[in-house]
Amino acid sequence: MTFGFFFKEAIRGLSRNSAPALAAMLTVLLTALVLGVFIPIVQATTGTANEVRDRVVVNVYVADDATEAERRQLAGALEDTANVKSVEFVSKEKGLAEAKRDNPAAFEEGTELLGANPLPDMYKVVPEDPDEVGSIVDRLAPAGADGVREPSLAAIGEVRNKEDDTEKILSATGLVKILTGGLMALLVFASVALVANTLRLSIFARRREVEVMKLVGATNWFIRWPFVIEGVLVGFMGGVLAVLLLTIAKETFIDPLEDRFALLAAPETIDFPLLIVVLLLACIAVSAAGSAITLRRFLRV
Amino acid sequence: MAHLRSRPTPAPLPAERPAQTGDVPVVEFRDVSKVYDGGSVGLEHASMRIGRGEFVFLVGPTGCGKSTCIRLLMKELEASSGEILIAGKKFSDIDRSKVPYLRRNIGTVFQDYKLLPNRTVYDNVAYSLEVIGEARQEIRRKVPDILRLVGLSTKLHNFPDELSGGEQQRVSIARAFVNHPPLLLADEPTGNLDPETSIGIMQLIYRINKTGTTVVVATHDKEMVDKMRRRVIELREGRIIRDELSGMYRPDESTTEFAIRLRGELGVGAEGHPN
User: Fold this and answer.
1) Which residues of A touch B131 (CB under 8 A)?
2) Closest chain B residue to A217 measured between Cα atoms?
3) Among A225, A231, B32, B199, which residue's beta carbon has the most beta carbons within 10 A?
4) Would the ipTM clear 0.90, i.e. be above it?
């Protein structure tokens, strides 16, 4: 009797109070839609920011007169340095090829004029934490008392980390991350507040009903269960509709573009099925909990 | 002025009512006071005992404490001091979470009916059985029975807003009585109804009383009280000022006395209209 009865009561409540229920459902639907659009956008933005941060590297140029043993020692030392994620060896030839690719005019002519490859061998060191890139530089070439950096190993010709670029990248991406994080928090807060408010209105309209139920001796949970089930149903319907709309939007707009623009697919965003599950669960949980909590005030009779 | 004292024990009941068993009163107020948060006094040092099977009118002008009594008895309000007992059980011992179980033993009827607006007559009555976990078959049997008793067997599937005031009150009486509670509280049950309909409602309540249910009716329906001649407890400004076995709404008052009181309250002197 019990669950069936509560479920029937919930259905009755929904059908006899369809206007507030519809309002609550629409609120859930809209907030879920907004969240569903913004979660991937925020993730894509932070993903892109992280990608840009990965471009922060330390270039360690090998001294031209370094012996084979010294070179090996350097390679080992680089691997062992703290905060180093990966080390890539770029030979003279490879460096030239890359340079030619980036700026063909200058280097085609330049090498012809020089008659030889002017570039030194180089190690590209990618830091684990881009914010701490300075520590790698300090380790490899500690600054002397006069502020001039001295390489710590004989094989190191010079250590460079493109100071200006690095700083710009770090501060810009940091700002983007903080902004998107703040935006996300605001959005979630607004969604919860909006849903809670709509629920409160719809329950407020029925406070007399709750009062009467208490008068005939209904326990609090006897009154609460149908409202919670109503909340679950409203959240579920709103969530399903939102997911449906999101799917349609994804299929029609995003997917066809994906092939042409790598950007849209590139950064790691949440998997679509996972997004659906998260949204649905959030919708249901928020509206069910919201119903139960708002009801508390009217149960104190 | 002997009638101004509240009696410590209920007087013997008329023969038509079932005999009392034991001497535990169904309702007992021991020096109960209720002061509302705003400081206004609802009830002041009220003491009374109502025995099983009694029919009691609580009378007095609005604001005298009638409704406060009823709400205290439902444990909708807490007494500020003193002790209320129902069937010998102290209210102060009843935990908040146990209040619903108390209410299942008290039928209630209100001036504004307090029906669930989005349920049919049948479902309104059935709800109070569903609350106590009654089996569905029992509900199907009991609800039409009680509705036939109150004369609404043809309106089972109407919604409250499709009924007249008298019919709605009948539904609420049916709901109050379907569990056969030992105590029925009625707060101005005829307050919204015309005299003709009121009689029908009172008849119903009286019939319920005759099955052995203790009935407490708060009312200011003078005519009804005077005609029925039941126990009357009069309240004024939160105090019990009269407790009579088969009383009138107001102690006997001649036309002249009434005229004097009327003029006095109007502030009109003797030189006013002489008739």
Assistant:
1) 213, 216-219, 222
2) B100
3) A231
4) no
How many beta carbons lie within 10 A of that of residue A257, not counting itself? 11
CA distances from B33 to B90, B219, B233 (A): 15, 21, 16
Distance between CA B206 and CA B212 in Å, rounded? 10
A1, A5, A212: residue with CB nearest B116: A212
**A79 and A154 within one domain:** yes
Count how many pairs of residues, chain A against chain B, have C-beta atoms within 8 Å.
53
Write the burial class of residue A230 (CB in 10 Å: 0-12 exposed, 13-18 middle, 19+ buried).
buried
Domain that includes residue A293, residue range: 2-51+170-298
Number of domains in chain A: 2
Query: Is the domain of A43 the same as that of A77?
Result: no
Nearest by CB to B100, from A16, A209, A219: name it.
A219
Does one domain contain both A274 and A185?
yes
What residues of B are in contact with residue A298 (Cβ under 8 Å)? none
Give the end of a domain, one of A160, A194, A229.
Answer: A160
Same domain, A129 and A232: no
Angstrom distance (rounded) from CA A256 to CA A247: 13
Tokens 């140029």 — which residue? A61
A142 and A208 share a domain?
A: no
Last residue of a domain, one of A127, A160, A193: A160
DSSP state of A254: I
In this prediction the pTM is 0.69
pLDDT (tens place) for every residue of chain A, 301 residues total:
578 888 988 888 888 888 888 888 888 898 888 888 888 787 777 777 777 777 778 888 888 887 888 888 888 888 887 788 888 888 888 888 887 777 777 777 767 777 777 788 888 888 888 777 777 888 777 777 676 777 777 778 778 777 667 777 778 878 888 888 888 888 878 877 877 787 778 778 788 888 899 888 899 889 888 888 888 898 899 999 999 998 898 888 877 776 665 554 455 566 788 888 888 898 888 888 888 888 887 777 5
Please, which residues 214-253 of chain B have a Cβ atom closer than 8 Å to chain A?
Answer: none
Same domain, A140 and A190: no
